[in-house]
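User: I'm putting together notes for a lab meeting next week and I want to include a structural view of one of the chains we've been expressing. I don't have a solved structure, so I'd like a prediction I can at least talk through. The sequence is below, exactly as it appears in our construct file.
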Amino acid sequence: MTSPVSSGKTLLLKNLQNNNNIDSTTTAVPTMGTNIFNIKIEEKCYEIREIGGAMAPIWSMYLNDVNKVIYVVDASNLCQISAACVLLYTILVNPALKNAEVSLVVFNIVLSIIIKTSSYRAHLLYKF
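Assistant: Thanks for the context. Below is the predicted structure for the 128-residue chain, given as C-alpha cells.
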C-alpha cells in the first residue's frame, strides 16, 4: 500500500485491522519507512506492507515480487491530487508491476471515520 504523504494509509489499515480502535480523536503519525499490517478478511489473513509517502523517490526498490498494489488518495487534499496522479503513474508504468493488480482507494480522510469498515473490506475482498 502506498500513496503520497498524509493521504490516510495508516488510518485506513488500522481501521481494517480493528475498527474499534478508530474514532474521531484518532490521529496517525506520518510513516517514515514501512509498516506491516496483518489484516484478516473472512477467515483469510493478508500481510500488507505500507510504504510511507516520504519514501516516494525509492518506492521502486519495494516493487519486486509485488502482485497487488493498493494506492490511496485523499480527495479532501486538493493540493495533493495532482502529485498523487503523477506518483500513481510512476507505479503503473513500472515494469516490475506489469502483472500486478492495482486498487485505487479515493476517500476523504476527514470523513473516513464515518465510513463503515465493511465497505473497505468489501472492496479489498473483491480485489484479492
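A couple of points you could mention at the meeting. The beta strands are 34-41, 44-51, 68-74, 101-107. DSSP finds three helices and four strands in the chain.

User: Perfect, that's what I needed.
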